[in-house]
Amino acid sequence: MAHTTRRQFMTKAAAATAGIAALTLAAPARADGHARTHQVAIKGFTFQPAQLTIQAGDTVTFVNEDGAPHTATANNRSFDTGRLTRGQSASLRFDQPGRYAYFCEIHPMMKALLVVE
Ligand SMILES: [Cu+2]
């Protein structure tokens, strides 16, 4: 069992404004009850994998393995891990299908894509 910490990164009002329920813990999980947790490593100033496809209801844990601080921030601001220093992680659940391009706010050349099916 992975030891992940769930953190609320946006208020419900902010999430509603963004048109998503991705960070609402009360939202239903996948119908089959087998929501998974995926991991994206942030290392070498890259997101690995650079493209990840998950199912709605799944959780993604972003782990910063670099010495430099990073964020994983949606281009449309629908999600944001906030600043992660070395060894820190943030777990976000995605309930709304879509293609979410994201980047690092500190190093905007760092880009990746999350696809929620
Ligand atoms: Cu960065």
TrEMBL record:
Annotated EfeO-type cupredoxin-like domain residues? 17-116
Alphabetized, the UniProt keywords read: Electron transport, Periplasm, Signal, Transport
Assign the protein's first listed, main location to one coarse class. periplasm
UniProt-annotated location(s): Periplasm
Signal sequence region: 1-31
Q: Which PROSITE patterns does the record associate with it?
A: TAT
Q: Which NCBIfam families does its entry note?
A: TAT_signal_seq
What is the name of the protein in this document?
EfeO-type cupredoxin-like domain-containing protein
